[in-house]
Each structure stands twice: as C-alpha cells, then as structure tokens.
Amino acid sequence: MISIVILTAVLVFISLIVDQRKTIKGIQKGLKQFLKILPTLLSVIIIISIALHFVSSEVLMHYLGENAGWAAYVSAALIGSIALLPGFIAYPVAGILVKSGVGYAVIAVFITTLMMVGVLTIPIEAKYFGMKTTLLRNVLSFCGAILVGAVMAFIYYLI
Amino acid sequence: MKTILKKYKFDFPVIIAFAVFTAGSFYFHFHTGIQIFEDNFWMFLKEMILVLPVMFILIGLFDVWIPKEKVQKHIGEASGIKGILLVMLLAFIQAGPLYAAFPVAYLLWKKGCSPANVFIYLSAFTTAKIPMITFEIGFLGLKFSLLRILITIPVFVLVGIIMGKYFKRNNCKINEA
C-alpha cells in the first residue's frame, strides 16, 4: 500500500518535470473519474459492511464446515459468490476450515468464487460494463470456479 | 443537479440512511450499529480512501502519457499470447479489491486493448495478485496455492476469450462509469 503511494509520488514528480500541463490534465482526469464512482462505491461498501456483520467467521465455518459431499460445494460456491471478504479474513477462515477437515477442493471453490464472482459489487461493475455483460461475466466465472474446484478435487483424490 | 440525482438514485438514499443510522447508533449507544461502522465500514473506507485516489491519479497519468498505438500494438487484437501474458503480469503486480480493477479495464479498452485481454486482465487480477498470494500461501500452503493458480489460469483465459467474442459480437462498450 505504501509502495504504490511512493511510486505514484515519484511518477507525478517526474511527469511534472517533463510537462506540467500534461501532468495536471492527467491528475484532473483521474480524480474526476474517482469522484464519479465515489457515491456508488460508498453505497456498496455500506451494504457490504452491514452484510459482513451478519456473516461472521463463525457463521462461515458453520455453513462450510458442517455440510458434506455436494452440499459442501454448493454452499462454498454460493457463500463465495455473495460474500465480499477481504483476504485477511477469508484466508485465515479457510486455514481453520482445512485444519478442521474440510477438503481442499471445497476451499478452492470458496476462494475462487470469492474472488472472481461478486454479486454485491454488480452495481459498480454494471456502471462500467453494462448489466448484461456484467451478469454474463459473473455467471461464466461462477461456472469456471466450479470447474476449478472439480479439477482440484480430482488432483487431491489422485495424490 | 437533477441529472446527478438521477444517476445516483440508489446510492444517495443508501448513504443518507446509513449516515442517519450510524449517528443514531452512537447517540443511543446501539451496539450493532456502532460495530458495523467501526469494525466493517471504517476498515473498508480506510482501504479505499487511501489507495483509490492514488490509483486514479496513476490512471490519469497513464491516460495522458501512453499513446494508443503502443497499447494497441502490445495488448490489442493481434497481440496473441504475448498480449495475454502482458495483461496477466499487469494484473498480478496490482493490489486492491476487484472494483479497483474496473477503471483500469476501462482505460485499457479505451487505449486499444482487445476485449478478450480486458477480461483476462480482470480475472487475472482476481486470481493471483502477488500481495494476496503471499497471504494465501501462509494460511493454505504453497501446494494448494500453486495448484489453484495453475488450474485457474487456463479457465479464466477461456472465460476471457468467450467474453471477448460476446463483447465484440454485441458491439458492447465500457463506460467511464
């Protein structure tokens, strides 16, 4: 996080030396885009914050850990698609689940859907890509995640 | 003013309601409300307020300095495997949540990146950002992490190509938001 701030500062500095007007135009362009998406971003993080309150680590472990067989995959895929967990929550939970006996394939489905499918961020994505493209990308990514899980299951079955 | 209100017709009510709810929670010592604000909302806001403006400045600089022909040549329609590898590399070294990748996707597309590569970029971004991978290896092990990434890459390249075809056939475009 700090590194990207420093990198940007250095680049802005170099850019200013080479061409002041161009630099200011670029910064203005960037910040204008930021302000445009800000209200949507805020409302999405509000909704995520409220949702996250009800989906605590314990709740996740309850749903992912207690089911077995196909039900485990389905709940992993559904929870992963809807939840928008930051990595520093998702990975520790996944680590505990593995220790308590949940299969790696189920964890792979959970992690992959968590990252590639974002039901809660659809409003943001749709602002850029339009609703149809957004839905298609999420559905395809969902199927892709299931496929990844199936291949992982097969490999872990072999080794 | 009216167009702005219309554009954010879902967002402003949510923001206002949440502001009122949070203020009320603090006033009446409503524990759940305070928790939602302090533990969750504040955490996301900190992540966003610091990283996103910086990222948008980078995007703006990229926009004015990098000519379209360069982007087109390296990651455009005729860039092939090399283009795919380049967008993947670009995605892997980035940090931040998925919604931080959308403005970059817009810029790449505007500058002549092929639609398939834009979608490959998005998926690669979600799959294997280097800062996240170190975290993943720590909790789930190197074997799991490597296997997952190796299996996911062909899957998302395929998703990217399908999305690219759909995108072109329907004359879709990416908006500035």
What is the count of structural domains of chain B? 2
What fraction, in percent, of the residue positions of chain A are helical?
Answer: over 70%
Average pLDDT reading of chain A: 86
Helix/strand structural class of chain B: mainly alpha
Strand content of chain A: under 5%
Q: How many E strands of chain B?
A: 0
Taking pLDDT < 50 over at least 5 consecutive residues as the criterion, the unreliable ranges of chain B are none
Q: What number is the mean pLDDT of chain B? A: 87
The tally of strands of chain A reads 0
Most extensive interface: A-B, 72 and 74 residues
Number of helices of chain B: 9
Structure class of chain A: mainly alpha
Largest sheet report of chain B:
none
Quaternary state reads heterodimer
Question: What is the terminal separation of chain B in angstroms?
Answer: 17 Å
Radius of gyration of chain B: 20 Å
| Residue windows where pLDDT falls under 50 for at least 5 positions of chain A | none
Give me a quick take on this structure:
The complex is a heterodimer of chains A (159) and B (177). Chain A is mostly helical and 159 residues long.
Q: Can you offer a commentary on this structure?
A:
The complex is a heterodimer of chains A (159) and B (177). With 159 residues, chain A is mainly α. Chain A has two domains: 54 residues; 104 residues, no CATH class. Helices cover 86% and strands 0% of the residues of chain A. Chain A is built from eight helices and no strands. In chain A, helix 1 runs antiparallel to helix 2, helix 3 packs antiparallel against helix 4 and helix 6 packs antiparallel against helix 8. The longest helix of chain A is centred in the first third of the chain and has 35 residues. The radius of gyration of chain A is 20 Å and the shape is elongated. Chain A starts with a helix and ends with a helix. With 177 residues, chain B is mainly alpha-helical. Chain B folds into two domains: 53 residues, no CATH class; 112 residues, no CATH class. Chain B is built from nine helices and no strands. In chain B, helix 5 runs parallel beside helix 7, helix 6 runs antiparallel to helix 7 and helix 7 packs antiparallel against helix 9. The longest helix of chain B is centred in the N-terminal third of the chain and has 35 residues. Chain B is globular, with a radius of gyration of 20 Å. The two termini of chain B are 17 Å apart. Classes of the chains: A mainly alpha (159), B mainly alpha (177). At the A-B interface, helix 1, helix 2, helix 5, helix 6 and helix 7 of A face helix 2, helix 3, helix 6, helix 7 and helix 8 of B.
